[in-house]
Structures are given as structure tokens and as C-alpha cells.
From TrEMBL, chains A, B:
Catalytic reaction(s) noted: alpha-D-mannose 1-phosphate + GTP + H(+) = GDP-alpha-D-mannose + diphosphate
Example GO BP: GDP-mannose biosynthetic process
Domain MannoseP isomerase/GMP-like beta-helix: 309-358
Any Pfam family hit: NTP_transferase
EC number from the UniProt entry: 2.7.7.13
Enzyme class, first EC level, given as a word: transferase
Keyword GTP-binding: yes
Keyword tRNA-binding: no
Protein name, entry field: mannose-1-phosphate guanylyltransferase
Any one GO molecular-function label of the UniProt entry: GTP binding
Keywords per UniProt: GTP-binding, Nucleotide-binding, Nucleotidyltransferase, Transferase
Family membership: Belongs to the mannose-6-phosphate isomerase type 2 family.
PANTHER family linked to this entry: MANNOSE-1-PHOSPHATE GUANYLYLTRANSFERASE
Length: 366, 366
């Protein structure tokens, strides 16, 4: 069994106007059921991590929403960062707090806002990763690429360690399309989905080696975590911690030292980065139309969505109003209480440009 | 000078969800300014008809809205039909009431929900029509066709009477595309826009000849109109009146009798039948985008409409929410407090199918 850590941050600007700085995507039911993404993440991890061993790391803004959406998660397992200090501080805090409670623990870290189609296969892969972690490796779960995606980093795999476990020789930044195509063709690369499984003692040792200041700060915070001093120590030390990603701070150096390995994940992973992607992963009607969210149900006989001669649309009805599309192909329609978006699916990536434009204008609806 | 009659009826289902049974298109600001269509209609007629000689004929549902939008129109000039009895009863009621007040009057009848681009030219054409009416002709203002439209009836013109006035030999039903193309090619046909100008005595005489029952009922109602008996007589007689259009009841027979003539109208007429048409007639930005209605203005620096890399769109922001379009071409987006519509401009005619579908489902949002 694992200790599960779920970093919950990032607003998902490509999912505007649904996802907002104040209402990020992991709090939304983008799963094809009434479950929100973070609820689905916790449910997916239940076979490998008891709820008492499941942690969410988040900022002050979203902690109340998370607490309400996960009523059975112990209060003390919601780790609230006083301010954003990037992923190494977030994940490192969880590792240090868990080590304080169980020095032998194996922890896995999984984003709050990803979707997995095949939950059983996901659990199998995690058990393989756990086996690697128990051997003292910093394990990643890489995603078997389905196309030459330029929006993700890649893991360059090396020799086989045991069974499906292979070493990771290098972490690669987001590539150009040519490079990504070559990566996929070679069969040696996996998508870096920021899923990690490791013994907390192994991770903390590597953190101490590469980022001693960050390590020492986190250890001092963790020592105070289950005491009356938590707030004071956290408030004192947290703002001084280096702001750095876990890949850059620890994983790249650990890979160079031969400490990182991976198991390939082929469980239908999706990072729900934009509405087009969301449309690909959720169940569609016969014409390929996807209606997102639990409000798509009939409300006293009144449809929330009326599609007439339309195909391939992604409709997100989130205001209770009727959304009607007539003769539309491959278009996204997102309806929220204060903003509506219409955009072709192949422009879904550019939604963040709209958010940038609104931000420039000082518009609060972002 | 004329007496102006404005029949205000019909909900405009192709303008759903903006236009509703309870909130028809003539009450909406679809003019490119803050004016509603009926306000623009009254303003357009001001050079030829005093406000005291201007009448609106409407049903019980819309009378309050009309009264509020036209605060200077005398109460007694809003003629309220107890129930819909088609256009001959509506226009005939106005003719009979006007004849009661001024037997020599020339009246013109103009729909409440049409747009005219060149108001000065419109007035010139009306003066020509008035001249024909004073000679004892039932005048129509036909619209010089700009394309072989199959959605309108046509007037078949005959010999020249005087100046621009020509006889109308026949009223033609909505034609097929082939027939419409031949009509336009021949130069002998005008669109029938249901604009009429006539002496009330001439019209009522022709009504008596062709529809004696309707004529007698309307005369009895008109006699009671400015008395304490109005409600009683109206309530008694109105429900018994034949339900028939003025074209079918009077104009076709009058044309056969050589009593109908026309002046061609070349003043940029548009019947605002659907959102595509509306987009053609209202001012557009450099990319051909049209924003309809007075709420398109900035509200404290917050845009109501945000168009990014979009062209040829028709956006109707009527809920106060932000409407954002990214990468859209030639599409209609209509945003109202309880429904939003997305549809390509070339499918604008089919919006009524959505309304039919909602009606079948018993949905009240129509």
C-alpha cells in the first residue's frame, strides 16, 4: 500500500470560462459523471492508498472547496501551503510530513486534475512502480505516447531493471513536433505526467543532496506539523523556501545519478488540458457530441442542451440555461453564469489567449 | 400627410431565443442603435404622419410593452385586438376607426418589425404612394428585389399609371427558386412587403364588396370605438369576424378589378426575418462581425463581447454576460438570460425548427 499525495493547484486557463483562478478545474465534474476531477482522483487511488494515508497539498484559496468535496478525508491530511512555492516544496512538504509519521512509507504523487480510463490497469501499474520504489528507486509512471504531443515533457528510457521497470536516463523538455515525432517513432520515450512513486526516505535523501536548504526547511516544518507550533513554524520558514519544480530540483539530477526508473502507463491517461481533449476522453453520443458535467441531465423535462443536426461538439452547460446548437460541427460551447465561450475544437489550445486578453483589460471574469 | 397604421404581431420564431412569444422581435433593439424596431418604425414615419395620427394594432400580450416603448403615442391610438383574427381584421379595424375620425384620411400600413436603411428615400416613395392613393387606388409599396428570394410573395406589375406608379396585375405566392429567378430577371416583379397606402373610404368600399360580414362588423366596432360601449361591442363582435389575410380577402380581388397599383421601394428594406439577415443589414466591424443591441457597449471597462480571430459573426449579447468567440467564422451567437444559441449563418432559417422541437417538448422557453 502507498501513501497517496495529490498536489492540487493551477487554474487551467485553457478551460476558461469553466475553470477560473477562483474555481480551478479539479473542483469541476469533468469526468463524465457527477464526480469532480479531484473526487475521481481520490477514488482511483483507493485500491492502493487508505483514505487516512491520502494527502492533498493545496493553496489557501482552494482548501475549503477541497475539504467540502472530500468530506471523509482527515482534516490533517489537507496540507495547506501559505503561498505557492512550486512543485518541489509542495511534494517535499508531503514527503516530510509522511516521513514524520511513517519513515518507511512509500508515497505516490498524482495530479488532482487528470483522467484515467482504465482504473484497474492503473492500479496494476502502480503496484509495479511500488515494487521499484521499494528497491530504492525514484519511480515515475510515464505515459505511453499515443501521438507526438508537443505540450508535454518526455522521459528518455534506458535499460530494463526488472519486469516492466526501465531506467530513466534523462528528462526532456517539451519538444518541437519533429523531435516529438522522432521520440514516438523510437519507442524509447514516455510522456512525463508528473506521477512519482518513491520511498519518502530515498526522496528526502536525494532532496538533501541536491537542495539542502529546501530539505532542511521542510524537515523543520514537518517536525512541527503535528504540534501546536505548526502555524508559527510554517509561517516563518515557508516563505524562505526556494521556488523550484521537483523535476528541475531533484529528478533530473537523480536521473543523472542513475536513481530514476519508470513503468510505462497504458491506462488511457488524459490531463484534461483543454475542451477538445476533454471531448476526446468523455463518452459521446452517436454523432460524437459530448455533454460535460452533471447538469446535462433533464431538469423537470427541460433539456439543458438541445443539439439539432450537430456533430463532434463539446458542450459544457454550467449555468442552468438552455444551450442550443443548430448545424454546428466540431465546436466547443461553454456556458457559465457570467460568460459564454464559442470556439472550434481545433482552436481549444488558444483559449488561454482570451484569458490573457481579459487579464490585460483588468477583467475579473478570469 | 398620412395616418400611419403599424400592425404589431408575430413573435419571429427564427429570431429565437431573443424573440419569444412573450417578447416579440419588434420590442427588441435590432436596429444598430438603442431604438427598438417599433420605435424605429414610428420615427421613420414621423415625416409623413403626426404622432396623433399614428396607430398601433396589437394583441393583449404586447400592448403594455408597446405603450411603454412609445410613451408619446396617445392611449387611444393603441388598438388592442381581443384575440388574433389575422391581418384583414387588424388593418380593417384601423381603417374603420380612422374613417370614423376622418373620412377623407389616407392611411398607410407598415409592419412594426422591418428595417429601412434610407429613411429619406422611404419618405419620397411614400409621397408617391400617397399621390396614387388620392387618385382612388389601393397602393402598395413593392420592394425592388435584390435577389431571387423564395421567402416572400411577389407583386406582378403592369402598365404605368403616372410617374413611378404602375398597376399591380396579380399577387403571387412565395415562388420556387426557378420561378423567383425568372421574376427577378424579368424586371416586372416586386417583393410584397405588406406595405399599403390607401384612402380609408376606398379600402372600406372594397372590403364591403368582397368581405361584407367583416366590413359590417368592423364598422359597428368603429362606431363604438370612441364611446363607453367600446369594450362591450368589441367583445361581442370581434370573435365572430372572419379570420383572413388582407392580401387574400381584399388585395387579390381588387387587383383583378384593376384597383391596385404600386410604387417600387428602393430604400434598403429588410424584414429582419432571421439573424443572418440582421447581420447583413446592421453595421459591421472590419472583419464583418456584427454586435446586435445596445448592451454591446462597454460596461465599466468590461466588454460584453470579446471576439478573437473571428469574422462574419453575428453576436447578440442580451444577458449582461461576457460572450467570447475564438476562431469562429460566419456563426451566430445569441445569449439571453435563459437560453443561448449557436448556429452557422447559413442555417439561420432553421432556427424555427429548434423552436418547434421545444414546443413539442412542452418547453416554456419559446
Amino acid at each position: 500500500m502507498l501513501h497517496a499525495v495529490i498536489p492540487a493547484g493551477g487554474s487551467g486557463t485553457r478551460l476558461w470560462p469553466l475553470s477560473r483562478a477562483t474555481n480551478p478545474k479539479f473542483l469541476h465534474p469533468l469526468t463524465g459523471t457527477a464526480e469532480t476531477l479531484i473526487q475521481a482522483t481520490v477514488a482511483r487511488l483507493a485500491p492502493v492508498a487508505a483514505l487516512g494515508d491520502t494527502y492533498v497539498v493545496t493553496g489557501v484559496a482552494h482548501a475549503p472547496g477541497i475539504a467540502r468535496q472530500l468530506p471523509d478525508l482527515p482534516d490533517s491530511n489537507i496540507l495547506i501551503e501559505p503561498s505557492p512555492r512550486d512543485s518541489c516544496a509542495a511534494i517535499g512538504l508531503a514527503a516530510a510530513v509522511i516521513a514524520q509519521r511513517d519513515p518507511e512509507a512509500v508515497m505516490g504523487s498524482f495530479a488532482a486534475d487528470h483522467l484515467v480510463r482504465d482504473g484497474a490497469r492503473f492500479v496494476e501499474v502502480l503496484r509495479d512502480a511500488e515494487a521499484g520504489a521499494r528497491r530504492g528507486l525514484l519511480m515515475t509512471v510515464g505515459i505511453t505516447p499515443t501521438h507526438p504531443e508537443t505540450g508535454y515533457g518526455y522521459l528518455q528510457c534506458g535499460k530494463t531493471v526488472d519486469g516492466p521497470i526501465r531506467t530513466v536516463d534523462e528528462f526532456k523538455e517539451k519538444p518541437s513536433l519533429d523531435v516529438a515525432t522522432e521520440y514516438v517513432r523510437s519507442g524509447r520515450y514516455l510522456w512525463n505526467a508528473s506521477m512519482f512513486v518513491w520511498r519518502v526516505d530515498v526522496f528526502l535523501k536525494e532532496l538533501r543532496r541536491q537542495q539542502p536548504e529546501l530539505h532542511d526547511g521542510l524537515i523543520r516544518i514537518a517536525a512541527a506539523w503535528d504540534t501546536a507550533d505548526r502555524d508559527r513554524v510554517l509561517g516563518e520558514i515557508w516563505p524562505t523556501l526556494p521556488k523550484i519544480s521537483v523535476d528541475y530540483a531533484v529528478m533530473e539530477g537523480a536521473a543523472a545519478a542513475g536513481l530514476v526508473a519508470t513503468v510505462p502507463g497504458d491506462f488511457g491517461w488524459n490531463d484534461v488540458g483543454d475542451f477538445h481533449t476533454l471531448g476526446d476522453v468523455l463518452p459521446a453520443d452517436d454523432a460524437g457530441n459530448v455533454i460535460v458535467g452533471d447538469s446535462a441531465t433533464l431538469d423537470g423535462g427541460k433539456p439543458e442542451v438541445l443539439l439539432h443536426d450537430s456533430a463532434g461538439t463539446v458542450v459544457v452547460p454550467q449555468s442552468g440555461r438552455l444551450v442550443a446548437a443548430l448545424g454546428m460541427r466540431d465546436v466547443i460551447v461553454v456556458d457559465t453564469p457570467d460568460a459564454v465561450l464559442v470556439c472550434p475544437r481545433d482552436r481549444a489550445q488558444d483559449v488561454k489567449k482570451l484569458v490573457d486578453e481579459l487579464k490585460e483589460r483588468g477583467d475579473s471574469r478570469i
